[in-house]
Amino acid sequence: TATITGITAVLMETANNAELSELGITQANTLIRNAERSETMKAILMAGADRTTANSRKNGFPREEDGSRKKDEDGKNLPWYIANINNYRNKQNYQTANGLDTRFGAGQANVETSYDILMGTEQASLEDNGAQTVSLLGFDYDESFGLGVKDLQANNTATYVLPTLEEDSDIAITLAWNADIASYNGNFNAVAVYDLDLWLYQVIDNEETLIASSTSDTANTENIWTSLEAGGDYFFRVDTTKNLVAVLWDYAIAWRVTERNLESSTAPNNLSAGLSVATSSVPLPSSL
């Protein structure tokens, strides 16, 4: 909790910037940048997390099957060791319905990568009059998804087209939305978690081929982490088609496409490479 709080504070230091996202309003009638919203921060943190790691300091200890710490024959705790994620979702019993790992969640938080996604700026879907392609790093916040109150047309799908890839790459996408909680005089009296789904397609000979999906019926995040081929044309899509009632809700989505040759670089070199996405007019937050 402390680690994530610190990382979020670093990101929020930059999120209140007119160059990164549009200005909106909360239910309490206060102004807020879309990059600052809780859904957006959650999506950026999860999409930016490392699914494979190469740590250099001790950060774990041997555990029993019940999760308790292993002890030696004298009853003393076994020493800490360097723990890495190297088998993310590699077995069926490790895989959750919303694209995460039962042991590691979204992975190991990475302030650098999440910052890069934030600097990719808010990018609207095609259905909300966005550009024909989005960048390889970015996020979006849709304040009226489903019935489309402020959109030019009602839409219950949102499509984001990636540019043609020049290198073999990995993609991480997180779709996040909050529960709908009703209250009266401070008492909560209704909770609904709407059912949004996330799909990733490759276009081959003008045909849409499903590559990956995340379609949990109960979670309020959907996540995709998979490999993409050089020269491929891909797009990802959000939809609400499984809901039994009409939905008018908001969501945030964040994504990153990482070229394989960059991801395999050593950690010290990745620091400067990862932060080069920043523009000169938007300085790095002081805490980073």
How would you describe this structure to a colleague?
The longest helix has 14 residues, at 2-15. Helices cover 16% and strands 28% of the residues. By secondary structure, the chain is an alpha+beta fold. A four-stranded antiparallel sheet has the order 3-12-5-10. Helix 1 (2-15) packs parallel to helix 3 and helix 2 packs across helix 3 (111-119). The model is unreliable at 148-152 and 263-283 (pLDDT under 50). It has five helices and twelve strands.
Q: Provide the residue-averaged pLDDT.
A: 87
Radius of gyration: 20 Å
How are the strands of the biggest sheet laid out side by side?
Answer: 3-12-5-10
Order of helices and strands: HEEHHEEEEEEEEEEHH
**Sheet with the most strands, sense and barrel status:** 4 strands, antiparallel
DSSP summary: helix tally: 5
In short:
The protein has 288 residues and is α+β, with helices and mostly antiparallel strands. The protein has helices at 2-15, 38-48, 111-119, 260-263, 267-275; strands at 23-25, 31-33, 137-145, 157-161, 169-176, 180-184, 187-192, 197-204, 207-214, 221-228, 234-239, 249-259. The two termini are 18 Å apart.
Topology at a glance:
Elements: H1 2-15, E1 23-25, E2 31-33, H2 38-48, H3 111-119, E3 137-145, E4 157-161, E5 169-176, E6 180-184, E7 187-192, E8 197-204, E9 207-214, E10 221-228, E11 234-239, E12 249-259, H4 260-263, H5 267-275
Antiparallel strand pairs: 1-2, 3-12, 4-11, 5-10, 5-12, 6-7, 8-9, 8-11
Helix pairs in contact: 1-3, 2-3
